[in-house]
Amino acid sequence: MNLENPSKENMSYILEQLGERLDVVNRTILDPEDYDLNKYDDLKLMYEIVVQKGRLSASEAQAFIEELRSVRKN
């Protein structure tokens, strides 16, 4: 999948993958409607880091989840 171009479809994919890789239990924080497409590059960067890193410690996963919360729409 080409994630270079910001789109709702790409953002949905990134959020879904982050949810799986971070073992997010409460997936409501990953609703694409809660994220602004202007934050796409931030989400894509987080996704790339998580994919590159592979396995994350519990504290690393929690840090990424907190960062996701910070880029959500208010």
Descriptive report:
The chain is mainly alpha-helical. 57% of the residues lie in helices and 0% in strands. The chain contains three helices and no strands.
Any descriptors?
74 residues, mainly alpha, 3 helices, globular
Question: How would the blueprint of this fold be written?
Answer:
Blueprint: H1 8-21, H2 40-53, H3 58-71
Helix pairs in contact: 1-2
Radius of gyration: 11 Å
| Individual helix count | 3
Q: Could you estimate the helical fraction of the residues in percent?
A: 55-70%
Which class of secondary structure composition applies to the elements? mainly alpha
Q: Count of DSSP E strands? A: 0
Strand content: under 5%
How far from one another are the termini?
29 Å
Give start-end ranges of low-pLDDT stretches: none
Overall mean pLDDT stands at 93
Which overall shape is indicated by the principal axes computed on the Cα atoms?
A: globular
Q: How do the helices and strands follow one another from N- to C-terminus?
A: HHH
For the largest beta-sheet, the strand count, sense and barrel status come to: none
